[in-house]
Amino acid sequence: MRLGLALGYWGRGPDPGHLALAQEAERLGYGSVWTAEAWGSDAFTPLTWIAAHTSRIRLGTGIAQMAARTPTATAMHALTLDHLSGGRLLLGLGLSGPQVVEGWYGRPFPKSPLTATREYVEVIRQVLARQAPVEVAGRFHSHPYTGPDATGLGKPLKPITHPLRSSLPVLLGAEGPKNIAQTVEIADGWLPLYWSPYRTDVYAASLTGLREGFMIAPMARAQVCDDVAEGLLPVKAMLGFYIGGMGHAARNFHADLMARMGFEEEARRIQELFLQGRKEEAIGVVPDAFADEISLIGPRARIAERLAEWRKGPVTDLLVTAPDPHTLRVLAELST
User: Is 67 exposed, middle or buried (0-12, 13-18, 19+ CB in 10 A)?
Assistant: First the structure.
C-alpha cells in the first residue's frame, strides 16, 4: 500500500505550507500528491506549481470537476501538465452533485450520471490516444457538436500536441454502487470519499473483477497526537460540511454513503441541523466512531495498529491529509 499526500483545496487563500509538505512527502518516498477543487481554487494550477518544485512524486487531481470543463479541455490540461512534469500526472475526475454543478458551474446536472461519466471518459481516452479525430455521438458529450443550435460547420479534430502518454491514468471519484462498478469497468482507478477498513463489505459487490494495476486510493485524515478526541475534530468538521452542506436535503450523495456505511440516522440528523443553520450542532452529531474509522488519529502506536487494518483490504494507495511534517514522517516510517 503506497502513501500519497492529499492537500485538498484552498480555503480563503493558498496555504503557505503546502509546497513544503509536498517536497517533504517526495523526500520521504510518498508516491503521489493530490490537489482538489470545489468552488474556489482549481486543481490544475497548484499541481503545476508543485510539479515545478519536485522531480519524482506523481501528481494527482483529487478531484477535477467534470462540470468545470468540457472533456476536451480537461484532456488538454492533462496532456499539457503530463508533458511539463515528465509523465507524472494522475487524472482524477468527479461528477459532483446537483447543488454544485447547477449552483456554481451553471450547468444542468445530467439525468443519467453514469452515461455522462462514461462519455466524458471516452472523449478523454480518444484525445490521449490520438489515433484519429475525436468522434463521439453521445447524449451529453457530442463531438462534433450536433445539437439543434449547431452551425453544421464543426468537424472532428485530434490534438495538435502529441500526448506524452496515451495511457495516462484516469481515476474516478464515485460513491453509489452502480457508479463504482462502472468505474471498475472504464477507469484505471477509484477515489473513494470515505473508506473504512472495518466495513469493506459496503463496496464488495461493486469491486468484483478488479484488473491488475487498478488503483483504489481513498483519502484519510492523519495526525500523530495524544488526544484522539481533539484530533478527530477536523474530521468531524469535514464530515459535517460534506454531509450537511454539500447537497440538497433530498439528494445528497455523501449523506447516502454514510447511511450505507451504517450511520443512516446520524446522517439524516446532520443534514437536518446543517440545513437549519445549526452547523456546530451538526458537527457535534457526527459520531466519533465513524470519524475514527475513516482516519488515522492518535499516538504512534495506535496509528500503527490501525494502519495494519488498512493494509488487509484492497487499498493500493492511502492518500493522507496530514497537517504537519512529523505525521508524514511517522507514516513513512510505519510503512517501510
Answer: buried
